[in-house]
Amino acid sequence: MGRVPLAWWLALCCWGCMAPNGSQAQEDPFVRSPGNITGAQELTGTLQCELLVHGEPPEVTWLRDRQTLQLADSTQIQVPLGEDEQDDWKVVSKLRILSLQLSDVGWYQCAVVLGGRTFVSQPGYIGLEGLPYFLEEPEDRTVTANTPFNLSCRAQGPPDPVDLLWLQDAVPLLWPRATPPAPQHILCVPGLNKTSSFSCEVHNAKGVTTSRMAIITVLPQQPHDLHLVSSLPTKLEVVWTPGLSGIYPLTHCTLHAVLSDDGVSIRLGEPDPPEEPLTMQVSVPPHQLQLDSLCPHSPYHIRVACASSQGLTLDQPWTHWLPVETPEGVPLGPPKNVTAIWNGTQAIVHWQEPMAPLQGTLLGYRLAYRGQDTPEVLMDVGLKQEVTLELREDRTVPNLIVCVAAYTASGDGPWSLPVPLEPWRPVSEPPAPSSWPWWYVLLGAVVAAACVFILALFLIHGQKKETRYGEEFEPTVERGELVVRYRVRKSYSRRTTEATLNSLGISEELKENLRDVMVDQHKVALGKTLGEGEFAAVMEGQLNQDDSTLKVAVKTIKIAICTRLELEDFLSEAVGMKEFDHPNVMRLIGVCFQGSELDGFPAPVVILPFMKHGDLHSFPLYSFFGDQPVFLPTQMLVKFMADIASGMEYLSAKRFIHRDLAARNCMLNESMSVCVADFGLSKKIYDGDYYCQGHTAKMPVKWIAIESLADRVYTSKSDVWSFGVTIEIGTRGQTPYPGVENSEIYDYLHQGNRLKQPVDCLDGLYALMSQCWELNPQDRPSFSQLWEDLENTLNTLPPAQEPNEILYVNMDEGGSHAEPLGAAGGADPPTQSDPDSCSCLTAAEVHPAGRYVLCPSTAPRPTLPVDRGSPAPPGQEDGV
Asked: How many CB atoms lie within 10 A of CB 693?
């Protein structure tokens, strides 16, 4: 409600100070004042006042404790009592409070300004009284054994005072108060040695309320005194002392070991390791563990935690990280490529570093050699990898053998195999390669070029067979497979379904499941285009069956499928959709392929039933704003809503999430029943109602649930939110959230704003819509509950008034549709120049439910209120 003008306040003050006693009573226009309401919190309260006025009806203002309600949720109905605007009017104003709170308690009045004078109704009082209401309840938690902790439980009236009693394992607690005393709502527990449950009872004059039961799980305390007892190059042995675990003995302990660079990557008190740790479990007792397969001469950090039969949790008490280090080891292998050559007076020995791990810092090499009749000589040659030995030229020199070993601070590694001393041979010139005659080289080049050319022709020919489409069949047998040859033309491929599936390279299981889904392209004949957009086109078609011809809608998707995984995902969803069998769910007839020279995979074509009356967004718009307006009874709109809820109940029972539920995706068949459509196979077809954020996929943000906008998480409850927005058909197809930009919708919803109740919307329907937009998804109703409520609402409505001559809108005639991209079929709105746009029906042709009819309206076209915005043309709704 807007700001109250200054003149209104001056008039109110003057009236309160100068009006004589009884003047208001004599000329009081109010015939009904607000009543008194006393109830419990979170209940819905409604106040109402009525007044009779002469001339133009005034605006009714609501007061609480003589203060104007700036954001009151009030509605005002003005009923003329005569035929002229200057006659008497009856004005009814209702104030609704959806959830009573303490801040709503007070005296409520209605105020109007008539002829410069302010009149105020008799006050009505809203009060709260009931059982205590919990502001805070005890929560589940995990604690370590014998460790103090606190629980909190708070409640309030009215009526007050509220007394609180704590219970442990359903037994009242009579513990002495803490020192210093804690507040009554805080329970100080000195510690537990077993898992227990805690709850609280609150009492007031109206009765007792019991809180939820909080489970306190007792886990072992943190182990301590973790230390190293022995170490080897690849093994470490550690022991620790376990902490208290209450009455539950320890079952096992878990140890983490992380390789660190001198401790830099592990900081004191860091809760989680910086990388994936080496994890080991050990049964206890004893409380010790030997870590194997470690890297020698390397720093590690280790920690340990223990668990009891109460299980492990994410916040289990780990010890602090303990820095340890494995000692050095000897090299695991000998030097490689050892050679020894004698040139007459010298022996030159050469080798390379060992391939096996050194297990430490290489300090040098040791060399040993001996002759047949001479003792062994051992030398430390340092880090050199080549040594020259001065030898006497005698008979013993050619019989020498040489060995080499690497060593670290821990000792020598294994010796290499003995290498005999070989005499030196001068390096001779390499033999000249034999020359080939020049014509041999030329012949080889010609043969190689011919092979490459033949291979290229074969590859190009095979590629053209897979990517070109359009001509009649020319079957031949090559390698036992059917081959189809054709020229490029704008038509469907004439290949058989079997040949198409064989060429896609999909799995045999999926190929078998597609037997009943795939449709031969030559059985589909295309007609006029019903609508075309950026991502898809919908065409009227005929499916030639064995004994009949079925009118269908053919949807060609322009989005390219680039990988086999995308194609298999598409076909798998088609297999699942073919199994849908419900009168309010669009049934997939089949899928065929349209080939393409530009893409590696053919484009899928979706075949759906033809929907005579188009989508549920365009139908009310054409009926309401067309050149020949048609009356849509409330009973019909509620029936549409019930059909959608019934179809979504079926899909949710199948564990199928729609993610794009909107009126534009709900179709009307010949019997005026709604079918939920456009799920799974065509997520990327729409553009106008979708908003692209960064590099993410386009999303219909004005229909999408708030948690899906934040986290991109979709559930059946997010479909329930979209269902609440889909009931936009009750507003005759207008755009939701008029004036709110697509990029601002999340902040708008996060601030608590929701769609407003349309003027002609039933209170019960809007309450049902509001339940669909609860912030917590678990608080939203299921589709089965929504369907039941809508059916009950439909049964309580009086039958729609039927005119003498029953007319039925025939939307199957006329020109091209504006843009029915959400339709599996569709038609044009009737025009004044089309006398056959409405055809007479007999009594037997009336809808079997008997709840609604359609007939041309003789009343002038209604004008919508200014604050609801103007409806967008079909297919051009406000984007998302």
From this structure: 13
